[in-house]
Amino acid sequence: MQSQRLELMMDIAEKELSGLTSIHNELSSTLGEKLMDTIDLIEKIDGNVVLSGIGKSGMIANKIAATLTSTGTSSFFLHGTEASHGDLGLLKENDILFLISNSGETIELRNIVLFAKKNNIKIISITANKDSHISQQSDISIVLPNFVEACPHDLAPTTSTTMQLALGDIIAITLMTEKGISKDDFKSLHPSGKIGARLSSVQDVMHTGDAIPLANQDTIISEALVIMTKKRLGCIGLTDSDGNLAGIITDGDLRRCLSGNILGRESRDIMTTNPITISNQMIVSSAISLMNNKKITSLFVLEDGKPRGIVHLHDLINISAL
Q1: Among 2.60.40.10, 3.10.310.30, 2.30.30.240, 3.10.580.10, what is the CATH number of 202-320?
Q2: What is the pTM of this model?
Q3: pLDDT score at 84
Q4: Contact 272/284 with Cβ under 8 angstroms?
Q5: What is the pLDDT of residues 163-205, one digit of tens each?
Q6: SS3 of 6, please?
Q7: How far apart are CA 71 and CA 76, in angstroms?
Q8: Does residue 320 register a pLDDT over 60?
Q9: Where along the chain do the CATH 3.40.50.10490 domains lie?
Q10: Residues in contact with 301: Cβ distance below 8 Å, sequence separation at least 6, in sequence order
């Protein structure tokens, strides 16, 4: 029973993968030309890319609209049924109508097509039938390469919707790249949530001021230990007479050096010199990666050699997991 189930799951995955492989293989031919025409047309307009569809294709259209908007191309989803009940007014002359329909014969989309034609609104479509009504009425008709639905009856939209989604991603990410959308731009489009947090710079999340565990390198270790315990970040930064970071002591350093007379020595005697530090412009995801690679839990943030903040791995992980 388990082996049969596994065989079925592998067959489903193989069919979905074959659809994506077909797209990849045909990008160098007509499919690639249609996608480039689509991107060129979208780059020229002043309005929105308005996605529409019904059923499963409508859900894919909604997702593509969200991806376009989040990557710098103004877009929204227009429900195929609601359009005929007053929402057609949302579609403007300087917009592009982008229809998703597997059959290309979706009855509910015909009124939208008619409205677009009457108002000289360009139409792009993704269908599986080049001879369908929607394909024939489109200014740019993107046709899915041959595929077999992952459904054993070749009926439920599965492989086809995966392919539709992949084509939408290709269009959105190509537009994003050609527009030169940077990480800062992307962050501005995602000010909240996990993506925005991971693209925040450490200056937005670092501990500053009195929260930074700092002492002069001449401070005796017993006093440094009190500061470390109070600040609760697992380390302390030691500064020289000019206020520059000279070294750090971590909890691990103390455990390794602990002995009967260590507490009366100066911090400089056991501190780690030239510690790994970062600038306040490093993004959160990069700081997390650096900490993981170096197996450290805290990083001091320097400006002209002087500590201006500190970030702790647990804080960064908690923020990026929001």
Answers
A1: 3.10.580.10
A2: 0.63
A3: 73
A4: no
A5: 999 999 999 999 989 887 666 655 555 555 555 555 577 888 8
A6: helix
A7: 13
A8: no
A9: 2-181
A10: 202, 203, 206, 277, 278, 279, 280, 307, 308, 309, 310, 311
